[in-house]
Design brief:
globular; TIM Barrel; alpha/beta; eight-stranded parallel beta sheet; single chain
């Protein structure tokens, strides 16, 4: 266990930042990607295998762990790190995304949200105070303030009302938070696609005062151009000495664009979900292992990847596993995808240190444009 939570900047390249987070459960080199471990597990992966990909921090979900097995039970068993055998840092979301994604199962008011469980229909309440209490019981290194993830599309008045509610909830979350050495609470900027609302939200969370700042309500259908335009406005409004987290992003091109604008942390289900649906990220773009053209291909999935999947298994074998619906298929493809994302983040960190981020981005885009090379 380490001392106080800290964030330091080690290098810059334009607006891009190379940094280091220090938490109760270790350090995280940034920019960093967090695989999603919704229910206390990164699907199809053992914790030690997640670590072997180069991953240093994962995300877990307050809403799902609250329902099953319950935060109090996890706390009684020593906290989430011990419960899931992950000794490294964990960030927990607040449950705010479910306010949007489970809209048909919830009622929202000033106090908080009343959900009907997607598991058994039981009713329960989630407030800013209860969200913070759950995250404290889980013991996550980074907790998130409870917010309403504004859906897209939303008219400006709707986005304003949603943002203002999130800011009132953020103040309540900060009041409920109990500081511990090595642990942190992040506030979340909302405001939809409206620059003035984003600036107002950023000013509000900064006035409340948090250890780090997240940008929420993006990657919900607005498209890359709008997302990056929102980041252009929002990053300028956030303090340079605190970590910045773009929630729910995403595709490699989106990550590169956000890193260029000064984002430090990312999370997304994309690499793990893709691994379970026969999709693999490679340096030449996406590969669909269901396609028959892989059935007799002896080559590795990505010849430039050093993961165990690429070193030890052929495309033909991976295709066979997918077609046979063997459990090993999502295990091997998820491990590869997480290694791809970890390698991408390491390359971005190195490029920022050398002042060569634009060159790296151009090289990645060129190889993606060339596409996958078909078998001979």
């Amino acid at each position: 266990m380490t001392g106080d939570f800290a964030f330091c900047l080690l290098a810059r390249d334009g607006a891009a930042r190379r940094g280091r987070l220090t938490t109760a459960h270790g350090t995280v080199e940034t920019p960093a990607f967090m695989p999603v471990g919704t229910a206390g597990t990164v699907k199809a992966m053992r914790p030690e295998d997640v670590a072997a990909t180069g991953t240093e921090i994962i995300l877990a979900n307050t809403y799902h762990l609250m329902l099953r097995p319950g935060a109090e039970r996890i706390a009684a068993l020593g906290g989430l790190n011990r419960f899931m055998n992950w000794p490294r840092p964990i960030l927990t979301d607040s449950g705010g995304f479910q306010v949007m994604s489970l809209a048909k199962l919830r009622e929202i008011d000033e106090q908080g949200v009343t959900f009907r469980s997607h598991l058994d229909g039981a009713r329960f309440a989630l407030t800013p105070e209860r969200s913070i209490e759950i995250q404290h019981l889980l013991g996550s290194d980074i907790a998130m303030a409870f917010d309403e993830c504004t859906p897209f599309p939303a008219e400006e008045d709707e986005a304003r009302r949603s943002m203002e509610l999130s800011m009132r909830w953020a103040a309540r979350a900060k009041s409920a938070y109990r500081p511990r050495p090595g642990h942190a609470l992040f506030g979340i900027v909302q405001g939809g696609i409206y620059p003035a609302l984003r600036r107002r939200s950023a000013a509000a969370v900064m006035e409340i005062g948090f250890d780090g700042y997240a940008v929420g309500g993006l990657a919900v259908g607005e498209g890359q151009e709008r997302m990056l335009a929102v980041l252009d406005e929002t990053m300028l409004a956030l303090p340079a000495d605190r970590p910045r987290y773009l929630m729910g992003v995403g595709k490699p091109a989106d990550i590169i664009g956000a890193v260029r604008r000064g984002v430090d942390l990312f999370d997304c289900v994309l690499p793990t979900r893709s691994g379970r649906t026969a999709q693999a990220f490679t340096r030449r773009g996406m590969v669909n292992l269901r396609n028959a053209r892989h059935s007799a291909d002896p080559r590795p999935l990505d010849p430039d990847c050093a993961c165990g999947t690429c070193r030890q298994y052929s495309r033909a074998y991976l295709h066979h596993l997918v077609r046979a619906r063997e459990i090993l298929a999502p295990m091997l493809l998820t491990a590869h995808n997480l290694r791809y994302y970890a390698d991408l983040m390491a390359d971005l960190r190195g490029a920022i240190e050398r002042g060569r981020l634009e060159d790296l981005g151009a090289g990645i885009a060129a190889r993606q444009e060339e596409g996958d090379i078909p078998p001979l």
